[in-house]
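#struct-help
A.M.: can someone run this one for me? Single chain, 349 residues.
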Amino acid sequence: MRIGPIGENLLERVAVLLRLGPRPLLETHGTLLLAQALMVATKTGVFEALADSALTPGQTASLCGTDERATARLLRVLEATGYVRAATGGEYSLTADARRWLLKDSSHSLHDNVLFRFVEWDWIGRLEGFVRSGRPLDIHAEMTGHQWELYQRGMRSLAGALAREVVLRTPVPRGARTMLDIGGSHGFFAVALCRCHRGLRAQILDLPEAVTRAAPILAREGLGDRVVHRAGDARMAEFGIETFDLILISNLIHHLDQAESRDVIWRAAGALRRGGVLVIQEFFAPSATGYAGQAAALADLYFALTSESGTQSFEDLAAWQKEAGLAPRKPIRFLSFPGAGQQNAVKPR
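D.P.: on it. Structure tokens below:
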């Protein structure tokens, strides 16, 4: 999956094929405006305003407290991008994509995740400094309380879009009773797995700042003491010895350097019971000789900018699992999120 110029008619497709169009303009000026258009439409409530009925730009602006002329222009961008459709009477309605991804109450909603782009906008704007100096940001140290809250809500909304595939493809051992979710913050993957496996109970280990803001999100799931938070830093916390049947490390490794990652995997292996499974769920880098693809390359750059690491390959993670005494399985590549997947390993009996 990639971002790039896509012709909307035969003439434009020929122009793209012959490299006649101003591709760098589209991929800079165009993507900046499109990103902000989606962010602002989400923040001002445009999609929620159109949830129940088609509206004119004036009616939409009245509900959202925005300017009518500016809202009309915003709606034209959303129409051209496939999130709203215009009727002959000048009214706009939501498309299936908008209803699936951008309405707050959708089971696949990325509403809060899109709002988190306003925080990331500042981080990405500091990319030049990172490229020149090699010094990454320390986002976990610099986030305000409000940003931590938005971060947790944003990650929870993304988890909701992935949870079904995670549940279907995670190899939970038969009769599993205990689970540790390392860096799980909102805990929704643990919640989804516990709902599917009735005898399973889970602990979610994350930084104190994350636990404070994620606790209300977890409480709304209504699983009581079956899924509980535990404050701590995965780089130093004790995981226990042969305590868990399933350990999930989701979207954490890309925040750690290689030495820290290998240490976390080693300690997680020690915390597994015989026959237990370690699930590493991540955005994955290509192998040393492989082609990254645009989505994977962008993810690697983003995580290098915002932490001290970046993405790792399936091969490297499997090698570290093997070093820790586990038996790696074939990698799982997600269909619902290209570039992401699982590298799993079993502890021999």
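A.M.: thanks! The longest helix spans residues 145-169.
D.P.: also worth noting: The longest strand covers residues 272-285.
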